[in-house]
């Protein structure tokens, strides 16, 4: 666990907050300072644990329909429903802590709805493990007509912000939306219990301030964002995903449900309740700050609310000597670096792109998970959980107090976020002048970007067939994130270039321009800005998802033949005559191939690695094209090596396991423990290893069985673990060189082999690896580009000058030979870099279907 450096606390801005009256729910905090505390990572930088998620969880996530709307105003409030109870589960990990087990939540919500007319409950979907996700809304009753008026004002704020800014109706009557998200990490439990207590108090409080709050606000509580993890006592959901890293990709149903809540409710304020940092850590964060959102508005409001939460938490009276609880801390003021808000993968940072102007991760203080859960006595665990619940409750109450007092400002600033986007207005850099009252703002806090005029995504076609499914997937993903996309009805010119009919255009003069740009832009190399980052630093969908994305810096769209779209045009196409060719350059194409092989269709491998389907299987190809939205081309080729459905044993990370299943591979998770328990290799065609398999830790029988398998079968390895197994098994003659293990980002590459045929000229790396000392039979499939290959992210040399991008320049990043392929990149990272997935698929097919890579080349 890395600890960041600390600096003397920046001066604290003292604000006067009105104390709540006795008996009021709303808490009036006392002012208090914080001692600077170090910040540590929540988890290891490199995931070296093998995934064990059941296939059923992946199927549920992949087959889940698009999330349903939760905040539409077709009905008034309250919106009551009686929830059926879940079976009692004595194994629920919450029970040991004296907290609410998942099976008790539905009965509790039923009881809360019966307390009056302020509480509504809706089911927003199901988790990867099949558990219901509950959204509780607390507000003063609304008729259907009043609810429709709220919806109309919400839409006006986003769609016509200049008009909304002048609306007296909005200033008088719009209910400020607040979103409290709890338990996104399953073994950080107490936010759920604090939320349930707050909802109960709100349901029955009679004081004037509570009545005023509910008359002018809608409060949304996502009771447990991760029920799978809550029950199992794990950080991740049933698929092994950290949901607070999934917002760019939205691969998991829980993430999509949270996204839908944010789109439907458009919260001005958001709390994401976590644990555990002592003292309580409250955003805003240290640099670097996300360059694509309106940080001046974000910092202004988030810092003011953080001060209120800090005071409320410290006012609880816990002390280091008496309770083991340190004073609360605000990283922006109290820390130098290491807890940044740079990537849009975290809940509060993602929310900022949808108009949230005060957003916070709140890390409650006392650890009760992991080794503490296993080793501390139950009374101590329950004492800590009670403290944590009280701290989370204080943070929520202080936020509600801030919303009640500052709702006009919060809504006005949300409108301004959307107005700047729609008008194409420049960002406002933070400074003591632009954000008065926030102490310690310096050049290290200034991050802005230059928005292009537009992005153009060509649709693919005869000359760019590989990009057609990728373009469609990218467009649909943009739309799911509330980015507006248009499509050209005929060829058009923009900034001196002609684009074909069917091209998609993302106009950056739109309310959520930050969302569009953060997804499509290259990003920035920030290696020289800070010495340490909290999580990933580069993520570009424009570079990593396989579609062609062209940035148009300037120009006008006036008169362009563009029409708004609600979905990408279908890609599916099958020629009526001849054999069929399926290019394996997109994960959807791989999934389609695997579905054909599963049906026993006689598919052969073409000379470039594509799949050749005989004309006799046209009906099956049509079905596959429709199911996976892919296009087949006519060909006279008959193919070479017959392909068969692969049975893959995989010691890989959760994201890699999920990506393999997304491509419809038949995968069996393995690990050191699984092999030592006695694994039957007879049903396996190929082994993929990147995590959780240590050759030296195997028993003699397990090692012998593995070695015997590798003598006759293929190996695909990724990263240091894959390279170590390759060396132990004596396969490829290469020397793996590990770069800085904290490095990550988007890099330029040169593709020179069949495994990487048709791949993007960019890759994603995390703890990058490269290969030297290549033996005579080793083929270079891909290399890091010469010069500084890092496009965006954070990649520094180590203190001795090694391990940096200069050392990797021109070196092999993917190598093959002798039924083995090794990756130094992260082609399946967290199910994210979609355009790289086919590299792994091609590697698996190649090593499993040939005596060597060279023989099939």
From TrEMBL:
Residues 26-95 are annotated as: Disordered. Residues 1-34 form the signal peptide. Keywords: Hydrolase, Metalloprotease, Protease, Signal, Zinc. Residues 52-67 have a biased composition (Low complexity). Coiled coil: none annotated. Residues 98-399 form the Peptidase M14 domain. Residues 38-51 have a biased composition (Basic and acidic residues). Gene3D superfamilies: Zn peptidases (3.40.630.10). Its cofactor is Zn(2+). Pfam families: Peptidase_M14 (PF00246). InterPro entries: Peptidase_M14. The active site is at residue 371. PANTHER family: PROTEASE FAMILY M14 CARBOXYPEPTIDASE A,B, SLL0236 PROTEIN. Belongs to the peptidase M14 family. This is Peptidase M14 domain-containing protein.
